[in-house]
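Reading is simple: each integer encodes one residue's backbone shape. An example follows:

___
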Amino acid sequence: MLFNINLQLFAGEGLSIYQIVTPKEIAVYYSEDTSNKIPYLGMTLFPADKQLGLDLKWIKGSKGLPVALKPSAFDVETTLRDRIGFDELETEMPFFKEGTLIKEKDRQELNKILASGNQAYIDMITKKIFDDVTGLIDGAEVQGERMIMQLLANGTIAIRANKVNYEYDYKFPIEHKETLLGTDAWSDAENSDPVSDIEAWQDKIEEDTGEKPSRAICTKKTWNYIKANKKIRLDMNPIGGQNIIMTDKLLEDYLENKLGLKIARYNKKYKTEAGVSTQFFPDNTFTLIPDGNLGTFYYGTTPEESDLMSGQNAAEVQIVNTGVAITTQKKVDPVNVFTKVSAVMLPSFESIDSVFIANVA
């Protein structure tokens, strides 16, 4: 295990908390811990890339235009807390940062256990410390996925927390949005016609761009509207449509044969800054997307990466996940290690004109 290797190297040398909690060790632990983790859906559609600085001109919306940003605040100190969040907007691209201190009790426990040489207890306490930090890295991933899913559900990004409110307008084509009302809403299983609706939206995108969407995203609740639809059941079995034992696989095959469409049901959740469990993608929204990548998820250069990686200071920095910075800083009064995770990130959306967003219920 990671801790065994590192702690044995320092055996008998008066190992301190400073030698255990370093960005390099945290990064290795995080990489090993997440090596088999299934990536978020949004990150597979918007592959990560790195660019220098915070220049928004690389971040494109509809027709290659730069993304518009509403103004916000500057210069706020890092927030210490244990939940997903961000601290400030530095310039054009959003700057997320959050930190944690090793709890005094944990530090004292680790000091006692190090003296005892009990490797199992050392691993247990060190894992707890590292998990606190990797939770912040996971929070950066959550922010990225949340931004992508907001784009795919609304065509905009809006994040409000820590008394900061900022929005990104990607100029989503208004003609590629529709809201179904009354008996047209898919929640009306007797009267609505999802197949005709989807076909019309596919035709609209193909007419405007020459590219027919072949994929879609919705939640399980929205999928169940389609699953219960009377017209679809009758089309599948004109004699006894309502008696069909409809399964997900049966409906998947039907829609792929009928419309050439594959639909991803996405119900992953995260906790907001207020600790509320929330779906990344909203119910009652159905988004058609083309094949291939939809854009790029750009990481900019954090201040920590720009100014603290030289090693000529009390801080150490390591980069994970393309552009997420882990920074540790020694504190001498009280003796402790302050760790923060920061990221400058924003997706581009080059395929925005080939996407159709529908509010179906």
Q: What stands out?
A: Residues 2-169+296-342 form a domain with the putative capsid protein of prophage fold fold (CATH 3.15.30). Residues 1-14, 71-92 have pLDDT under 50 and may be disordered.
